[in-house]
Amino acid sequence: MDEVRTNILGLTPEQLVDYCSSLGEKPFRARQLQRWIHQSGVSDFNAMTDLAKSLRSKLVDKAEIRAPVVLKDHISADGTRKWLLDVGQGNAIETVFIPEDDRGTLCVSTQAGCAVNCLFCSTGKQGFNRNLTAHEIIGQLWLAEAAVRKSRNVPPGKNDRQISNVVMMGMGEPLHNFEATVSALKLMLDDNAYGLSRRRVTVSTCGVVPMIDRLAQECPVALAVSLHAPNDRLRDVLVPLNRRYPLAELMAACNRYLDYAPRDFITFEYCMLDGVNDTDAHAHELVDLVQAGATPVSCKLNLIPFNSIPMPGLRRSTDARIASFAEILRNAGIVTTIRKTRGEDIEAACGLLAGEIMDKTRVQERMAEKGIGSEEYIRSYQFKNICS
Ligand code: SF4
User: Fold this and answer.
1) Which residues, other chains included, contact 94 with Cβ-Cβ below 8 Å and sequence gap of 6+?
2) pLDDT of 132 strictly over 50
3) Same domain, 227 and 374
């Protein structure tokens, strides 16, 4: 039987040094190998011409460089590009490239499905299937950089990086897959791999408090927190993890993170849901939370117009409502942006990543049995005057 090859695509710089050492090779060989893989996008060991022939033949025998397989590749009318990737056992993930004039941002997934099950998120409706490995996470960047270069006739190499920013904001909660996420982050930041600045790599979490502290110690990059509600009663419904790590704990963790973060603010994401979390009263409560709560937090607010998923009772706030909400925040001195919706024609915008929802763990069925997510359920929270 063939020996199973080691997939070295997701090995961190230190792990690759160890791997090369296990083959009897010096550390500088690991750095050469890393540049071939991540800067030149090469997967054929025989094409790595400055490696000794003996090393190449060892690698051919024992190792491989294997990214997830592309199932679909869609390009939106606005240039947004989405790949559907096969990660085995019937699981698929999505990766989205968002080109802008001054940057190219890649939104990567860290899990197949997600256990958090935020009320408005299509990924959560699939249930949790499994954590992605480090090579499946970094493989999204590896694939996307090569594909974008090819489409723009930019030759492979260290220069002219097409992807300048990475956001871990795709499918899954990155801090529920901590080890693989940090391994991929280390490669994104390493000068012999992608060389991205910490300020241009963002981990987005719904608020896994202990892991925010760990990230601060192990690999502090920019942090975005999916807030979506200004009080615990509403957030308990929209982001169920809030029941475990309520807002007071989350705000305190954000403050601790700022001591290590590459930016002097946390980005709070806030999905605008008509009549649920978008009133003037909610906006004022949000100002109080971040400015006058027990732990005020230096932050920016990013308001996200909701992209409809098959969930009764949830609708996108009107543009006028979003503008009024933003004005209250700005008048309080909070830098506030309204996210431009991209790639809707290919279902690439946030919250639509799962596309066709595969409910492997019967999440929707179980929620329906309890009445969770019904129009009545959502509206009942609104009628209880959550803002008071
Ligand atoms: S918003 Fe993020 S954390 Fe919440 S269910 Fe979706 S993928 Fe999971």
Assistant:
1) 82, 83, 84, 85, 109, 170, 171, 348, 353, 354, 355
2) yes
3) yes
Q: Give per-residue burial for 184-199: e unless 16+ CB within 10 Å, then b.
A: bbbbbbbebbbebebe
Find out whether the beta carbon of 173 lies less than 6 Å from any atom of ligand 1. Answer: yes
Q: How many domains does the chain have?
A: 2
Question: Which atom of ligand 1 is least distant from the CA of 173?
Answer: 3
Q: Which atom of ligand 1 is nearest to the CA of 122?
A: 6
Predicted confidence band of residue 380 (pLDDT cuts 50, 70, 90): very low
Q: Is residue 322 part of a domain?
A: yes
Does the Cβ of 226 fall within 6 Å of ligand 1?
A: yes
Report d(CA 338, CA 110) in Å as an integer. Answer: 25
Ligand 1 center–CA 92 separation, angstroms: 16
pLDDT in tens, 56-87: 999 999 999 999 999 999 999 989 999 999 99
Q: What's the rounded Cα separation, in Å, for the pair 91 and 315?
A: 29
Instruction: Report if pTM > 0.85.
Output: yes
- Residue 122 Cβ inside 6 Å of ligand 1? The answer reads no
CATH code (residue 59): 1.10.150.530
Residue 388 lies in a domain: no
Give φ, ψ of 83 to 5 degrees.
-110, 135
Is there a single domain that holds both residue 298 and residue 230? Answer: yes
Which residues form the catalytic set?
A: 94, 350
- Asked if 124 and 237 sit in the same domain, the reply is yes
Which alpha helices (H) appear in the chain, and where do they start and end? Answer: 13-22, 27-34, 53-62, 134-151, 178-189, 209-218, 232-238, 247-258, 280-287, 319-331, 363-370, 375-383
Ligand 1 in reach of 206 Cβ (< 6 A):
yes
Within this chain, do residues 346 and 331 fall inside the same structural domain, yes or no? yes
